[in-house]
């Protein structure tokens, strides 16, 4: 590897061609980055005392260990944003100078339109792509070439064109002195010229180490470069066009984060480990190097496998599944949780390879939906679900597929349990579901229960049949204990419905809501059928309607009919023990200057404060156990160092860890609650 400081314009002049490899991300600098570069150039050009302005690094792989005078292009692997933007400035400047009177077309020696194009933008005696000193990836290539040739019409949907027009506007506003300042500023741009030799240097390692600055790359960018970098250009193009670009197009519609999520689920399924979203690239590299890297086609197999599973994921998560029955169920799972995707990827793979039948696939998805929704309604903490589905991926018996999955789910204990009908119904009828985050999903499903003609309910709003504000008419209708009825049943399932007439209903009496135009009596919604048949609305009516609706819910989100023998056969081996791994992960991840208490940590991991305290006192491997304190921030009376020879003062250690003690109590502002603790390890839905 050769690295030297060099003038950027000299590098462009001496280089025959730079080609941005097909796997590199598209040109993405926005107005802010362009404005900063403009400001830097104008500042450098206006200061005689400033000899140069450093703008970063340019990293490229020389072709066949050649030199910059070779006909083959150099592959630009880092710095393309910077080089492209400077190229746009030069193109805009050349276009502007060409339109000036003859005596003003070279404000600084060497900066005429013809010289700029001939030295920095083009190879005047070449044709085709070789005519241009810089060639971008497919989606930006034509846009840049039209800009350099000043060939209208430009491609208006390209960032290249947008930024070119920005510089055209900036240059048009300059006077003669300003043009000289710009030329001087361009002449002072300096970069670190990093030339890599193919077969000798590892371009990926150099790329990673030098990418700490500039526009931050996504995990997808890093994985793409890792897979495709340093391959022969023809193979790069083939793998990019056959596999990566189709993936890129699909995920581009849904945000870069969804690709990171997909790779995380993919790695969880493949490795049994759950990486953090920000560590997906490193985890993918570890997975890749753990495969057969001695196989000449190993990278091709890696990207092909990732592509196949990405199609499964996009079918499930983005509504692309062609099978109507499966699509309906995938849509529901996507609404309920995303933590099941490692397991779903395994299911889809087995379905595609015909190890899982269509009917078993449907049965397993129905059980999955019931498991997720019942737990949601019952308020069971979600922090265990990642590990539950990670385990389930590897507990499937392909010879008894559906039974092995259902048996395992029904065997799970405690905070991982599959709520039974009694628990589910009790919560449905008593909880204040108006505030539940899955309220609209619940009402939509109840409205369309047992019907092939699906009614879209997004256009309707949730109506309190007994209104939130109690009028004299409602007090009379509810009876002497109206306050208790209103307090206990206002937000419960039996008192909630859907309507398009929410403002009109307001606080009217039940009879008015029923008889008015657009009232319950005229409503076509199935949820209002019960209301058409009532003349009054009382506690008994609310309870009866809740009972009717919960009976439908039990059928829709059914408890799997699996006999005890099957449950025992496929039961989880740890059903009578508690999994403390999440506790340990959270404690290891506690940031400097934070603490928590037994109640918050117990809620986060799904156990009780006493059981947690006992585990921390008995388990020598619990990192940061001293930073788990009483509810008000006292050091626990039972706290002891696991090493009996350790005589450190815990309060001194807490202070060293950044925890502030005020009158013997830890600073409440530094305490992490259960949700914040789970965010440390990215657990939950």
From TrEMBL:
Organism equals Rothia endophytica
Instruction: Enumerate the InterPro entries for this protein.
Output: GmrSD_C, GmrSD_N
By what name is this protein known? Answer: DUF262 domain-containing protein
A Pfam family matched in the record: GmrSD_N
The domain of life for this entry's organism is Bacteria
- Where the record annotates domain GmrSD restriction endonucleases N-terminal, the positions are 9-227
Please list the residue ranges annotated as the GmrSD restriction endonucleases C-terminal domain.
Answer: 419-550
């Amino acid at each position: 590897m050769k690295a030297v400081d060099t003038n950027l314009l000299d590098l462009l002049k001496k280089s025959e061609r730079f080609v941005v490899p097909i796997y590199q991300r598209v040109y993405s600098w926005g107005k802010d980055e362009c404005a900063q570069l403009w400001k830097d150039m104008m500042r450098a050009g206006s200061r005689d005392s400033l000899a140069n302005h450093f703008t970063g690094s340019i990293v490229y792989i020389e072709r066949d260990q050649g030199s910059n005078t070779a006909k083959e292009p150099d592959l630009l692997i880092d710095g393309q944003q910077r080089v492209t933007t400077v190229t746009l400035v030069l193109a805009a400047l050349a276009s502007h100078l060409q339109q000036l009177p003859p005596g003003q077309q070279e404000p600084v020696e060497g900066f005429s339109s013809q010289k700029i194009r001939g030295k920095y933008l083009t190879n005047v005696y070449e044709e085709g792509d070789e005519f241009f000193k810089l060639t971008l990836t497919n989606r930006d290539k034509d846009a840049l070439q039209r800009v350099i040739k000043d060939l209208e019409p430009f491609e208006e949907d390209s960032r290249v064109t947008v930024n070119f027009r920005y510089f055209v506007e900036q240059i048009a506003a300059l006077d003669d002195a300003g043009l000289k300042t710009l030329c001087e500023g361009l002449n002072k741009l300096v970069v670190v010229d990093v030339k890599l030799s193919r077969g000798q240097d590892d371009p990926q390692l150099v790329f990673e180490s030098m990418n700490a600055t500039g526009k931050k790359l996504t995990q997808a960018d890093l994985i793409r470069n890792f897979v495709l970098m340093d391959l022969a250009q023809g193979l790069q193009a083939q793998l990019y066009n056959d596999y990566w670009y189709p993936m890129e197009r699909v995920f581009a519609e849904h945000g870069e984060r969804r690709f990171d999520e997909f790779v995380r689920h993919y790695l969880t399924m493949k490795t049994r480990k759950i990486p953090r979203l920000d560590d997906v690239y490193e985890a993918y590299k570890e997975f890749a190097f753990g495969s057969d890297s001695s196989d000449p086609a190993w990278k091709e197999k890696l990207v092909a496998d990732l592509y196949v599973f990405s199609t499964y994921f996009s079918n499930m998560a983005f509504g692309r599944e062609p099978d109507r029955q499966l699509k309906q169920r995938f849509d529901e799972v996507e609404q309920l949780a995303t933590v099941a995707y490692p397991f779903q990827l395994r299911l889809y793979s087995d379905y595609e390879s015909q190890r899982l039948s269509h009917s078993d696939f449907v049965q397993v998805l129905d059980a999955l939906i019931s498991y997720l929704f019942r737990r949601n309604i019952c308020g069971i903490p979600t922090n265990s679900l990642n590990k539950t589905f990670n385990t389930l991926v590897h507990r499937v018996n392909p010879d008894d597929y559906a039974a092995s999955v259902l048996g395992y789910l029904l065997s799970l204990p405690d905070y991982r349990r599959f709520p039974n009908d009694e628990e589910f119904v009790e919560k449905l009828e008593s909880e204040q579901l108006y505030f539940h985050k899955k309220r609209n999903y619940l009402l939509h499903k109840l409205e369309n229960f047992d019907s092939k003609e699906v009614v879209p309910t997004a256009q309707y709003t949730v109506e309190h049949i007994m209104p939130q504000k109690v009028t004299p008419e409602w007090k009379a209708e509810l009876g002497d204990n109206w306050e208790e009825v209103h307090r206990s049943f206002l937000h419960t399932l039996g008192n909630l419905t859907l309507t398009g007439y929410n403002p009109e209903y307001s606080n009217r009496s039940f009879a008015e809501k029923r008889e008015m135009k657009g009232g319950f009596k005229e409503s076509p919604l199935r949820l209002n059928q019960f209301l058409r048949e009532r003349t009054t609305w009382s506690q008994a009516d609310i309870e009866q309607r809740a009972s009717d609706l919960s009976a439908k819910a039990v059928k829709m989100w059914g408890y799997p009919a699996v006999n005890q023998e099957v449950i025992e056969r496929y039961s989880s081996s740890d059903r009578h023990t508690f999994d403390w791994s999440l506790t340990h992960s959270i404690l290891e991840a506690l940031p400097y200057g934070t603490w928590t208490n037994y109640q918050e940590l117990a809620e986060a991991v799904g156990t009780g404060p006493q059981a947690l305290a006992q585990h921390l006192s008995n388990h020598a491997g619990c990192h940061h156990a001293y930073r788990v304190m009483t509810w008000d921030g006292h050091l626990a009376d039972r706290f002891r160092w696991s090493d009996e020879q350790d005589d450190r003062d815990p309060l001194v250690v807490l202070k060293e860890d950044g925890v502030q003690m005020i009158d013997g109590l830890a600073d409440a502002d530094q305490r992490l609650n259960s949700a914040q603790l789970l965010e440390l390890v990215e657990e939950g839905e």
